[in-house]
Amino acid sequence: MTTGRRVGVGGFVLGLAMMLVAFNLRPALSTVGPLLGLIRETTGLTAGGAATLTTLPVLCLGLACALAAPVIRRLGPDLGVLTGTLLVAIGLALRGFGTLPFLFLGTAIAATGIGFANVLLPALVKRDFPNSGGSMTGLYTMTLCLGAAAGAGAAVPVERALDGWPAALAVWSIPAMLAAIAWWPYARRSGPAKPPQVGRLLRNPLAWRVTAFMGLQSSLAYILFGWLPLLLQGRGLDPLHAGLYASLVTLCQAPGALITATLAARARDQRGWIVGIPGITGLAFLVLAFGADGLRIPAACLLGFGVGGCFGLALTLIVLRAADAGTAAGLSAMAQGIGYLFAALGPLAFGLAHEATDDWGVAGLLFFGICVSAILAGLPAGRAKTVSATG
After folding, report:
1. Could you report the per-residue pLDDT of 239-248, keeping only the tens digit for each?
2. Which of 34, 92, 359, 364 has the largest count of CB atoms under 10 Å?
3. Entry's Pfam families (predicted)?
């Protein structure tokens, strides 16, 4: 992968295409939670099956990220993003068949595509926008969060309009296909690229610290994707309003990601952000889950800002800690591949804790504990150092 690529007049259009891809990297995940109760009711899906359904995409994300190096070697990063976007569209379409096997299969395929694009986009930011990495990371992370919010908020209204959850899940394949079409001209810009030497990163403590922070903060987001609507329904909200609150949380991730990524990239180091943003996230979740009803809206906004900020911060760390674009691809693959595999334990443990206690108390403490762990694990990654995996 070449470094220091200068983006010419088409840089703005390239950025728009990147944003369109980013928008489609979360509806596959955020649309299931608001409809999970209906899916269980109409298919007979058990509580264990529901926990598996919320965990499966995170596992597939991790496996796809681990395969990113062969993708870079065979296809190149640009064509790799196109391949990932097409897999997202195909997986979403398969969920429209309305049976549990196709629901699980489509979810796995879509999540695999998301994993490929997730890994490669930070490397492309490092390569194509070398002088504005923080701003571009914030912009595409913000757009990604907007896609997640659109999926969460529209899930129940679209289900009612289309008279069924299969169509409500499959309809998101249309914008994903449009994103693939928009990216098509850029998929031919470069051929196969030499992948980074991942072994160097696996022996580097800094790379592991970035990976730990990525995995822990990711588990927070996927817990909310899978379980927040049901938690709010347990507090007395109907499915529509629970979905709208989940959408508000997800919508507020956008400014959180943009502001945090942009400002953190300009800071001398990122340790203050690593303490503050996960701390805000944990406190806001406790208020939303167990606090007074009158605090529900501000807590939802603050929770969304915090979760979005955590994600934007994690991606910013990948860009800042990597010495070059090739290393950014390798560090992204390591941090997201290993990180997502461990993050998969978050929604699974959260769901099992709720199922075992028939309450949300233990599960809520688990969420807060993950926030504290993210702070402790991420602090060393906030120092202004870099790692190289090329040459």
Report:
1. 778 878 887 8
2. 34
3. MFS_1
